[in-house]
Amino acid sequence: MSDEEWERFLRESVAGAAGAPVEPSARARGVEQRLKSAGGGKGPEGWRTYSPAQPRRHRTGWYVAGLLVAVALLGVSLFPGQIFGLFDGDGDSDSDGSGGRSGAPLAAESERPREAPGAEPAQRPTWDEPFRGSPAARWADGAAGITVPKAKATGWMDAAQVERALKQSRRFLVDAGLDRGVLRGERPTKAIGLLNPHQDDVQEYLRTALSSKTPTPTTDPLLLFSRFRPRQAQLVGDVVKTRGRLSYREGERGALEVTADVTFVYPVAPAGDRGRDSDVVRTIVRREVVMSWDDPDKIITEPGTMSLASYTLDVTNGGCSDPTGYFVPPFDTADKQHADDEHRIDPYDRSKPLDGDGDGTSASGKNCATATRS
């Protein structure tokens, strides 16, 4: 090394080379520390400090949402009927009567169901919820539960006449099974007014059934009319649940023959009782009535009236002793629904025809059976 280079080395060692890093003094480091403390730790970055790259934060919510959507799509592809059944209006196809999700009203019955309704949770009826634990909780109220088919010309009637006859047929069922006065034991005047006054056998039945204090199985007014003795039972609430339908065809001598198959569910409690502690019982009555709207040119009749071809019924919790002319709910007995253990019925099963002989079966008699539920 030459003398000039040696002198330059010594000078630069003392003065410092240009651009070389300078160690901050103790004072400078103290000032920097105070600035950091005053600014919440966000002061100027020190010359030897190092800020590593921050890891990227993943938004896990989007991944979870995407996973749920994928699962939902898979469920729809594998079980479309069950998935969409949760959101449709009735939750039931009405073809089997088995019901869908609890509480959803059933569609109107347009044909005979293929099977009985599914089981309901075992819950006793109460004054506030008289249909709790029963398939009837999903049935329509009153006349709305009786389906009337579309009318078309049949027999001696054109379509408009058939429509009127169907409405009158349903009116008879309402007057005989839903009228509040009739249910309290009053005379069913409006229903009788729809019956052909020239049909002698029916008129004789009406006179005997509604006047006798000791009716027989063939003269029991319950064959056509629903009645409770006011001093023994009272209806709970303002609603009677119904489910059923009318159908029609051409009958004898060109008559319009209308068949009604309807189940009525009457919630009742002991007379005079009120409140949640009342013993609420459901009396369930299924009626099948065949009505003939006769051609006045062939049968003696009166305008707006029809003849009865047959009528029969099944009853649950309506009494199994001798006929009294009134349903007798078993409020205080331990054998509710009990009659004949060899004859067991599901009163809500509308998939089977009635067992009556077609000319009237008493509410107290061979059709008084042990019900599997009420």
Task: Outline the fold blueprint.
Elements: H1 3-15, H2 26-38, H3 60-78, H4 80-85, E1 140-141, E2 146-147, H5 159-177, H6 180-183, H7 189-192, H8 200-209, E3 233-235, E4 241-250, E5 256-270, E6 281-293, E7 307-316, E8 344-345, E9 370-371
Would you summarize the structure shown here?
This protein has 374 residues and is an alpha+beta fold. The protein has helices at residues 3-15, 26-38, 60-78, 80-85, 159-177, 180-183, 189-192, 200-209; strands at residues 140-141, 146-147, 233-235, 241-250, 256-270, 281-293, 307-316, 344-345, 370-371.
Please characterize this protein's 3D structure:
With 374 residues, the chain is of the alpha+beta class. The chain has a domain at 135-371. The chain has helices at 3-15, 26-38, 60-78, 80-85, 159-177, 180-183, 189-192, 200-209; strands spanning 140-141, 146-147, 233-235, 241-250, 256-270, 281-293, 307-316, 344-345, 370-371.
Keywords:
374 residues
Q: Into which percentage range does the β-strand content fall?
A: 15-25%
Shape descriptor reads elongated
Helix and strand string, N-terminal first?
A: HHHHEEHHHHEEEEEEE
Largest sheet: 7 strands, mixed
Question: How many helical elements?
Answer: 8
Spatial gap, N to C terminus? 118 Å
Structural class: alpha+beta
> Radius of gyration from the CA trace?
41 Å
Mean of residue pLDDT? 80
Total beta strands: 9
Low-confidence stretches: 45-53, 80-101, 334-339, 358-367
